[in-house]
What does this fold into?
Amino acid sequence: MPSASRRSVRDWLVDIGLFLAAAAVGALTLSDRLAAPPLDIPLWAFRLDQLVGVLSCVALWARRRWPVGLLLVLVVLSTFFELVAGAMLVALFTVAVHRSTRTTALVFALSMVTSVIFVMTRSMPGTPGVVLFTIGFVAQSAATGWGLFVQHRRRLLVSLRESAARAEAEVQQRVRETIAREIHDVLGHRLSLLSVHAGALEFNPDAPAEDIARAAGVIRQSAHQALQDLREVIGVLRAPAGELLQPSLDDIEELVAESRRAGMRVHLSRQVTGPVPARAGGTAYRIVQEALTNARKHARGAEVSVRTAGRPGEWLTVEVRNSASGVPAAPGGGSPGRGLVGLAERVDLAGGRLEHGPTAEGGWRLSAWLPWPA
It folds into this structure.
């Protein structure tokens, strides 16, 4: 027998317990009949009843392989043999556990029909037929109900496990997306600076020594800062969520100053009243960072304006505009759009709204509105 069909220790304990329960029901019934006045049946029929009862209990070891077939045989036998009752109840319980509710209802109805036939054809001294049928109905209903309860409980547990597995997979997916956003936002800005200046050196090798030295300095500084940012990202992945350091709205000034040192023309306007919530400030920083990175890659030489405005009880507005640029994009600038997708997810998680698109003058605009509770 394949290992997948082997009984576990728990299966063996359950099978032994149900076998003993069926044998006990048969033994109690036999004891009751021996103590009562003789039945109105031949002695050989009574002996045959005992033999069939024993064989029925032994047949229960095949209940896992042929639950419905075994039950049908025992139901038919119970029409004529009383001592089959215990094994028949166990088989009925097994079908209720492992088969559909429709199948269980059909075999239960068949067992009720055979019970009626048994009561009508067999007389029990001192026990009215109605009482005998009621006892059988209650016992079979209890076995069926217990089996259905076990089946539905198992289905519920399986459903809960599947739901937990799906929830864990969704959490892992969100974690991966968060990590990807962090890596893109943190490293994209630095690496775009490095790419722009390296591309300028490659395509203008005859530039004055001062320009070459300045570009080389920016490349060195950007590469060093990229390594620092990478260490911070690794630290973020290892640190508890409550200990993550996030940029604030005030850090935008340094971000703009850094872009100016790289040769960009950036104007900053700040019209913010009151302390900005940490989440809104960090999201605003990432918006400006992504916008400056995109302007540097796809609108070289364009003039960029950064504006932040808001107060408690209103929206924190962040807007970045760049003018049209006739200068081709820097080599290695990459394809646009991926960072905007991550930015839209970040803004959505913060409960805000993001808009972006070309302006009438041929430039580009990126605007966001972030909630600022009073």
Q: What stands out?
A: The longest strand covers residues 265-272. The chain is about 65% helix and 10% strand. Confidence is low (pLDDT under 50) at residues 329-336.
